[in-house]
Structure formats: structure tokens, C-alpha cells
Design a protein that fits this description.
Layout lengths: L1 H17 L13 E4 L4 E3 L8 E6 L6 H12 L1 H5 L3 E7 L3 H11 L5 E3 L4 H5 L13 E4 L5 E5 L7 H11 L9 H4 L1
Parallel strand pairs: 3-4, 4-5
Antiparallel strand pairs: 1-2, 1-5, 3-6, 6-7
């Protein structure tokens, strides 16, 4: 029986990762999600204006997710150097996202998707009911630039910054006073 269950689980993983995957060049799914900063964010806010990065994570207050969130909080300057808005997102209730943002000193919004609608649209839901740790890069035209399915929690900020550079996302122009 255990072998059958294991085989069904493996088949579910193969089907979910190959049939419904977002691909480079696809239109990003529209979303509208409440965030830890009290705002609601949607894809349409950014189309034509700015690229976005959404780092999906399984669950607030778990070890790997805490490490990833702290990486982004402590190294956010690397991401703010680019013309991009960045978020972490989970299916946690908004209250958990707010508390998690406070506990990790996140200075960026954590998006809350308790209905799992956006997570399913972005094809990040795992068969066990939580999002996979995937980072989605979206162009300012609303197209998928990259789906990073091999996220390292500890170096997440550095890896995102490197990918933004490789993807050709422009850096933010610095004012003369910022150079001093």
C-alpha cells in the first residue's frame, strides 16, 4: 500500500510540474492580494510601469521561510538598486503575514493568499496544500521572465539581485546626493 501511495504522489508531482507550469514569455496571472503593509497589490498596478518579483514561500514562522525572509530584509538594498517591486507571498492568513513581517523586520510587503487562488494561478501549489518555494520574475509588460524553482533561502536576496541583473532589469538612477 505504501508503494502505491508513494507512486501516486510522484505521479501528482510530475503532472503538476509539467502540465500546468508557467513558462518564460507567458502572461503573468492577474492577482489582487492584501499585504502586510495594509495595502492591496495587483498585477495591473505594475504593468507598463515596473517589473515585479514574487517570492512564494510555504508557511510563515517555519525555519526555511524565516531564513528567506530575513535574507530579503537584511539585504533589501541589493534589490532596491533595481527598478523592481518585490514581495514574498504565501497562503497564510493576513494576520500571520503581518506578524511574520514584524518578527523578521521585513521592510517589503508580504502578500497573503488564503484562498490559494493566486498560488494556483502561478502554479506554485504543492500537492500537500502549501506553496512551493518558487520565485517568479515578471516584466513591466506583465510577462513571465523567469521562474526560479531552486531557491536557496539563505542567499535569496543575493540570488534575486543576480537574476535581475541577468534579466536586464534596469538599475534605479541615483541622485547626485546619493553618491556622496
Amino acid at each position: 500500500m505504501r508503494l502505491i501511495t508513494k507512486g501516486i504522489g510522484m505521479l501528482a508531482m510530475l503532472v503538476s510540474s509539467s502540465v500546468f507550469s508557467l513558462e518564460i514569455g507567458d502572461s503573468a496571472p492577474n492577482f489582487s492580494l492584501k499585504a502586510s503593509d495594509g495595502n492591496t497589490y495587483s498585477l495591473e498596478q505594475f504593468v507598463g510601469k515596473q517589473a515585479i518579483v514574487i517570492a512564494w514561500y510555504p508557511k510563515a514562522f517555519t525555519r526555511g521561510c524565516t531564513i528567506e525572509c530575513k535574507s530579503l530584509a537584511e539585504n533589501g538594498h541589493l534589490l532596491r538598486a533595481y527598478d523592481v517591486s518585490y514581495f514574498m507571498a504565501s497562503v497564510d492568513p493576513l494576520e500571520d503575514s503581518i506578524a511574520f513581517a514584524e518578527s523578521t523586520q521585513a521592510v517589503f510587503p508580504l502578500l497573503s493568499d488564503p484562498s490559494k487562488k493566486a498560488a494556483k494561478a502561478f502554479d506554485v501549489m504543492a500537492f500537500y496544500g502549501y506553496p512551493k518555494r518558487h520565485t517568479i520574475y515578471i516584466s513591466k509588460e506583465g510577462k513571465i521572465l523567469l521562474v526560479d524553482r531552486n531557491v536557496n533561502s539563505a542567499t535569496s536576496a543575493q540570488d534575486i539581485a543576480q537574476n535581475l541583473q541577468l534579466l536586464g532589469i534596469p538599475k534605479v538612477a541615483q541622485s547626485p546626493t546619493a553618491l556622496n
